[in-house]
Structures
1.
Amino acid sequence: MAAMNPGVVIVGGGIAGQAVCEALRERNADLAITLICGEGSAPYDRVRLSEILVSGEDPQTLQLRPPEWYADHEVELLVGRRVTWVDPQRRVLGLDDVEELAFDKLVLATGSQPLMPPIPGIGLAGVHPFRDPGDCDAIRLAAAEGAVERAAVIGGGLLGLEAARGIAAQGCAVTVVHLLDRLMERQLDAGASALLAPALQGLDIDVEFDRSTQQIIGPDRAHGLRFSDGSELMADLVVVSIGIRPETELARSMGIVCDRGIIVDDAMNTSLPGVLAVGECAQHRGIVYGLVAPIYDQARAAAATLTAIAGVEAAANGLYLGSVMSAKLKVAGIDLVCAGDAVGDLEAVVTDAATGVYRKLTVRDGRVVGTVLLGDTRGAESLVAAVRAGDLVDNPLQALADASLAGPGDLPDTAQICDCNGVCKGALVQAVTEGGCATPREVMAVTRAGTGCGSCQPAVIDIVAAATGGLSDEPAYLCPCRKQTREGLASQIREEGLASVSDVAAACGTGRECGACKPALAYLVSEVCANQHREERDARYINDRVHANIQRDGTFSVVPRMYGGVTTPDELRRIADVADKYEVPMVKVTGGQRLDLLGVKKQDLPAIWRDLGMPSGHAYAKAVRTVKTCVGTDFCRFGLGDAIGLGIEMEKAWEGLHTPHKVKSGVSGCPRNCAEATIKDIGCVAVEGAWQVRAGGAAGGNVREADILATVETRAEALRVATTFLQFYRENADYKERTYDFIPRIGLDKVREIVLGEASGAALRERLRIAKAATADPWLERDDPYHPRQFDDLESPEEPVLVGPPAGAQL
Amino acid sequence: MSVATSVYACRVDDVPLGEGRAITLDGRRIAIFRSGAGWFALDAACPHRGGPLADGIVCDNAVICPLHERRYDLASGTALNADDAVVAHSVRLRGDRVFVTLAVAEHVTA
């Protein structure tokens, strides 16, 4: 087949190569496509590297598409291969000098290299560019290990500032040294830049201006910078981020005309017929675009050219006419959006130095040509859309004010919402009206909007809500007041090292307005911090403040833990004694095979726990509750597996772990299923010679049979699969989302892939182990209360003591 | 009671920040709250089904009943997602001591 029709070969597996791939496949399902990646992995989202630098997450999470996507879309993916020569006449190229590959058309998406200044010391150890996951790892390690007292970032552009933020997040002092007298001079004017420096200072990032680095001080490794005025800055880690150099070497070797980049026309053709160039390696109308949004436009134009029928001119709308530059600074704690020109012949500026707000609209010949929004980015989508469209404007000051009030619903369909994936509002609305999507999540999956850096997710959610007429009741926001999603908050907690609900409230205001999300925040903080968080009881439901379940009359119920539902005469005696001593109105056997003491007064709880001498059963919490078991092989004549043994193991392995919603489990020793394991959140059923591990069962308002995650041979394997699923649910479910809603949302195949995957499963179990190690029996607070009045009301005076000041007196 | 008087209720430390506690003052069950925005007092029982508001989730300006999540404004007692308002009382601090001035029943409007 390849010999018959070699098709399109794309050289370069960055965002540009991937974008061309996708745009091509969208236009033509049959065309043979080969994508050659020089780096050792499939295309990943380089734009988000700075997030990885902060969070330390596996760069694997940046993959633009999962490995199976390439097979599904019949794209031949060659990873870690370099094109060493191209023979344009024969239409053949060489891979690593060993293999030849034929092509009909060639797309160069070779990207760029970081620019490294030719100064003494640039090659020393401790000097890094910031370009790929390897750089990211090296910088992060150096900054985090404490051997570095101060780091220096050369270059105060977008990427340099994001790198500095990443270093500061590791607790390492960092100074940005910039050649000019203002930061991000390509995007910002002096006014915005003047406010940006103090905002960075607030994040422990120092900035020095007018600094021309002449030398990196050695000799064995980097120890500092020497500037042109003779002054020095001590730094053991130096990150260089002064710009990019388009990678044109291959193009030049083919005789293609290059300037800074590979010169392309509006159809993305290079000077050589049948060879195109896209992305950071290309120079279009004199401009090399170093930002992501234009790349998508270029990729679409390239796809139009590649699929055009020979001899027919590409339609005008298939051409690339250039892009308005726009950028968002992804530095948590600083909101900055800019687009177009920062200066015009008419400018409207609203600024408040005290709060660090700077909003500007620039106009030329009556048309909007640029905007800078710092500190307050309300209306950014509509203002950037106005810049892109070159809207006419009479009163720019009024336009600025109007934009801050406009929601995404007021935007035109052509307004680009997701800059990472180039998705316009119209496409989102269409996904609802024509694509049948009902929730933001579905729309994001279909359009890929919001799946890049995630900063546009609130806008996507608003637009989808408007398009569905608000029919979606999906709890898309964890905090609706502040429009914060669980995913967004989790990454902020990770990036900024937030350790408590009040930390999160201070960082983004969540939980303060209506308070409804406080328990969800409390869970999220504890989960992300693996239970090493700072506990704040006011964020917990009363059940979790007093570790008992509130009843309709304000009394509480007490359920001690009985692993697997197995108890002893001694425990039963103590329970009976407690029921007598505290005049407990009712003792009942629960559905989960436990004993429930109902109608207990709050102030009696600590003494009852002490008398019981049993650990908490967590019957009041969104946590691992009971594991219901049948008698299994111990006594039952039908038993195939040791249900009690496995149930007790599960309960002990998971005891004390909080979960997005309650987790009720069961283990049945044979398919007769007396423990009803097939309608539990997590259930195990022994079958002949094996264990079925199931999840997502329900027996509430709806009955749902639990899905089979896996059938495994041993009890130990069953425990392992069930444990892995538990952690997957803990990390990925929305608060108050039961397993039976969670699995259908994620998709059973995806759940299986991650839970049963060797590496992903091991990582989940490791994180569970760490979280479990930090749990303790909450009923021990009987002797060590969180607050002296944890279980007490206030002491009411017999007679009111009228000693207070008269009403209205000012104190 | 015709003349409103301030009644000593508790010490500042008796109520953890961000929580509420119940007390009986002048024969009336009251919930005292210490939110991020200050001190407040409401009748202790939720008008919906009698839930103990002192056990609710407290945010800056509101409390959510622990039984059925009805929400009330702490300062005014206005129902934010419920039908009936709850009676609000005024709270003043003197040093570390907390005083409540009970609302006069006749002046309360739902």
Note: DSSP finds no helices and nine strands in chain B.
2.
Amino acid sequence: MSTLQALVDAVALGSIYALVAVGIGLVFGVLRLINFAYGELITAGAYTLWVLRSLPAVVAILACFAVVVSLSLLLERVAFRPLRKATPATMLIATFAVSYLLQSIYLLVFGSLGNSVSTLAGLQQAVDLGGLRIRWITIVSLACGSLLLIGTAILLGRTSIGLHMRAAATDFQTARVLGVRANRVIAFAFLVSGVLAASVSVLFTVQNSLVTPDLGVPITIFALVGVVVGGLDRLWTATLGGFAIGFAYSLLGDKLSGEARVYLPSLVFGLVIVVLLLRPGGLFAGQPRSVERV
Amino acid sequence: MRRLEPLVQYLGPATLIVAVAVAGSLTSHAREIEFRNALVNVAIVVAIYVFVGNAGVISFGHVSFVAVGAFLSGLLTIEAQSKQFVLPGLFGFLRETTIGDLPALALAALAGGLYAFLVGLPLMRLSGLPAGIATLAVLGITYNVLRNWEKIGPGPLTLSLVPETTTIWRAAAGALAVAATALLYQRSRAGRQLRATREDAGAAQASGIDVYRQRLVAFTLSGALAGFAGALLVHLLGSITTDQVYLSLTFLTLAMLVIGGVSSLWGAVVGALLVSGANSFLVDAENTVHVGFDLTLPDGTSLVILGALMAAVLILRPSGLTGGREFSLPRGRAKAR
């Protein structure tokens, strides 16, 4: 039974990381920009929940979405739009700088000790399903995760803005020539990724109630690693990669005994290196690229 | 003039480094450590530049080599007697050996180079983003192991009692040596071949350049320099934790490199000194500095301002402050001769 339990937990963590992966992947798709500051959006949402902890949960959660989405759009406008023509290295380091800036603001405003969020603490309680003790948050994470992923898939596949985004992700220049409005598509990508970040804030703080200024850093790193392992070029492979990393992390954490458990990050990173060496294009990328020139 | 080109290219970085050292030696002891720190940062950033700048491949892993150099050199220079008590869990060899600080610097360089070579053997086959992520994974592993394995270090505790032998002059000499090595390398046959792969990997390969081999050479050299810089760092601080050689140092040093201009030695040195200088100034300003008037920043704002400054420079000057060009004398003067 405990194996099944571990599987369920792994799927739940996997679905949270899948959401982060989609958020990073959407922006990468249209801008070729790896947004290292993505985790700081999640942190912003978590702090919003903390600040509004005395209000009803619904209000706090709505505010969390509003804050995170605005911050995401603001970053796009102020920081990333001027950098569209810059080299990939500069863009990457600029997102680092933004991440550093936001973290130091959180540190300044909220201090380093951490604040405890209990907006949806009730979800920590478990239900008994035929001998399986499953916490509500696991079920909610799974449900929200799948709904949001399906929602994003519909958005991308069935709406005209989604079509524009996919076109832009395939070939930005050609898409522009054919009348796709660059600013609109990019802003929309940041909007959707902001919505996803906000939902991760809500789900993540239930499991991990302590909010510190660097809360978002490990989330971004693991999701990013997952995204690259899955294959960045297409959204669904990136999503699967994100899911895989959360799943593997949770499952390996359960299987390792106490002593070895501290080396779990090493094990995951080691696996990542192996995957990258064997399949540089990504684990789920299908056929290797015909021309891997270098 | 053309024959003097390498000397001219060295002149700029060397003058800056010496100027910082002289300025540091003239200030109070409390201020001097900031100047020493800036010089050690130069060494770290130039070490990273040797690979990232010449190969055009981003690496998040170099702070691993800094960490290896720092912890090895730190451990080996602490007196054996103290180690028996403070770090009883160490391997016998590490616990009982004590060496001088100069051999320790050399050993740190050797260890950094060896580690980089072993990591590079498989990883240098990658390029682009997968290479970046793989080196990030290396950093993650190095941090995780150093933090938990108490046979090779202090684990989650602080490594203290390290002799503070990085004086301002030694920091300057170290930075000068690293910069000279970087320049000699980038002007060598191997360095030029690697720079050709950076401009157009396909064309370079078609001209008979072994991309993998050249990247591995640069990665190893750059790892050795990073290990050396790490040793300078630990002997500057006197104590170190694993968190000091992890993500924030990685980010800060890469930002210094990109802000200066990623593809030149001059850029690496300028970026390292400017960002270090700005950082020291802002931290001092939290305790009031005098700049014509008394400037006092509220506590904790220095990080925010530094982050905003770095983001602003990157947004306004995406190719770096030097534009990635080497130092050269003003053109008019060169012609007049």
Note: The longest strand of chain A covers residues 126-129.
3.
Amino acid sequence: MITNFISMNGDGLFVWLSFGVTIFACLVVYIKTKKTLNKYEKEFVEEIEKLSVVERKKVLEKSKIATQVLTSQSKSA
Amino acid sequence: MLNLVSPSNIYFILEKIIKFINSIFFLILLISLTFALILSPPDYLQGDSVRIMYVHVPSAWIALACYTSIAFLSILNFIFKIKNFFLINKSIAPIGLLFTCLAVVTGSIWGQPTWGTWWEWDARLTSMLVLMFFYIGYILAIKTIKNESFAIKISSIIAIVGMINIPIIKYSVDWWNTLHQPASIRLTGSSSIHTSMLMPLLLMLLVLLLYSALIFLMKYKTEIIRMKKKNIKRL
């Protein structure tokens, strides 16, 4: 039964290859996208932390998104 | 509630949607794969190779939908000069390219058992390949042109010119004699696909749409941070 499922009456190679290529490509893109996002989030937080207290306050007051990035980073840390 | 949907809360909203998609994704993927690989019947002519349809067709649909969205937003960007549209397009383009490549590759794999060839320069296959080149051109324009406003202009022109190719892809099977079969599913009129095959097809479409949404949201978040990073430097 398992052999039949894998061979799919001779079409198994093509079916598994199609699904395999799709899953592999999607996985690679997912990992790469997630890594890039994490890298940018980390760099952004580091840049904010480099600022002086006054500058940091100014940035956080001006940009609510900056505060949200900081919050989400501190949650995941 | 109103406060939650304000533009300044966009980052939190994106994060919540990403978490939600992550939480349901694997369950839907598992159900869809079970339907596509086990429960759906083989075709009376093509046998089990018909299962390739469950990744090939949704990939092609998403590729076309992404390009249409990019072209539409590019037109709006030309008229209203809203930078957010460019950020959205920048986040959609890699997804479109991925699914165009997948549609071409899985189509080629499907061609071998059904037509006896991996590739044929027929209208549908060639027009999909042209779409892939438009995607590559669009992404290269964004990545290589340093001046942002010029990059927006050139990429928008590529997107709008490439829009001509979309109806060619859609109607290529009706306009020319091609190896590719005509559309089995029609939004207007009756579809020639049986429910036992339509169900896994729609489930796989849902999975790939959820995946696209996930990638789009992560890329869009990256673009927002990149923009904010530039703003810090300006301050």
Note: The two ends of chain A are 47 Å apart (CA to CA).
